[in-house]
Amino acid sequence: MKKQIQAVKVLGTGSYLPQKVVTNDELSQTLDTSDEWIYSHTGIRSRHFAAPSESSSVVGAKAARLALESAGVKPGDIDLVLCATSTPDYGNFPSTASLIQAALGCQKAAAFDLAAACSGFVYALEVARSFIACRDEAKVLVIGAEVLTRSVDWTERNVSILFGDGAGAVVLGTCTEEDAPASRSILGSDGTGYEFIYREGGLKREPPTSKVWPVPYMQMQGRAVFNFAVRKLDEVISKLCADEGIAPASLRRIYAHQANARILEAVARRMKIPYEMFYTNLETTGNTSSASVAIILDEAVRKGELKDGDQIALAGFGAGLTWAGILMRWPYL
Ligand code: COA
Question: Which residue in 328, 331, 332 sits closest to 314, CA to CA?
Fold first, then answer.
């Protein structure tokens, strides 16, 4: 009799986008910009803004509830709540994951946040997979949650127009299927590029003597980030495919971080694959950082376009600099 091997599997997905939609035309009423400029440079037409009562833990919990529902898993059965976010409710602690754990009632779960910026959700999937692999059986709620519209300066046009709010989540668990396919992953970082995209607000410097802290808005060198993203996405997806012995064009789909359609077009040209291989929704979401890959996975599942057995790549890139990729046969991690 063959030994049954425990494999890690996505049991369910969920996502949440706040109700308020802000179009490029609306932005151009207060910013020196236009729908034509934003769309031609990014592919973005509109984005969602969290309501004042919606923080990352709130949007994250909304997405997580839907993921638990679709997985048929009770909050009390979750062993770990892992939240990737660049916009935590509190500066450092408590973690946003702990707040989500409390909101959902995942009483027996450990909880912590993962900070890898826009690579965060793909990083978190790999961390969760490793956590499960070290246990006999475990269920992990992996969440990407962001309220990025609060982290940018809406009086300047270079950075703000790119970002939106939202959250996505998956529930991971185990199965014992004899032929469950194994995934491959790449996680990387190059901290020498930290100044390309950063947001202050930590304790790098002495705190100001006044009790009023300056609002730390995101700073970015757009062109440098663009070039890094194109090069790294190509490298990560090409290496995953080469190691698997397949051509990138044979993938069913690529679920990459939704930063800018022009980045994905440039990657497609470089890799000589059709642009349509990339799943995109950024036209109506903007860049939701660590939430973006989780949101598009859930969308694809709910539309019925992501089917069991599909060989797909997930990829993220962002501040750090960081990058991450996973090659998998849905829903096996
Ligand atoms: N509306 C109108 N004009 C704008 C503008 C806006 N929202 N933002 C910038 N401009 C202007 C600039 O002021 C500049 O004008 P100038 O030539 O008179 O100085 C001109 O457009 C070109 O600016 P530049 O920054 O060179 O544009 P770009 O083609 O590099 O596009 C980004 C800017 C931000 C869209 C692009 O660099 C990008 O997407 N980078 C990656 C960012 C990203 O994805 N970050 C997150 C990674 S996770």
Answer: 328
User: Phi and psi (nearest 5°) for 186?
Assistant: -135, 125
**Backbone region of residue 27 per phi and psi (left: phi > 0; alpha: psi in -120 to 50; beta: other values):** alpha
Neighbouring C-beta atoms of residue 117, cutoff 10 Å: 22
Rounded CA-CA distance 170/311 in Å is 18
> 5 Cβ partners below 8 Å, 6+ apart?
176, 178, 180
118 lines ligand 1 (CB under 6 A): yes
Average pLDDT on 57-67 reads 98
Instruction: Tell me if residue 141 falls in helix, strand or coil.
Output: strand
Catalytic one of 48, 106, 257, 260: 257
By the 8 A CB rule, do 318 and 187 touch?
no
What global pTM score does this model have? Answer: 0.96
Residue with the two structure tokens 């932005």: 27
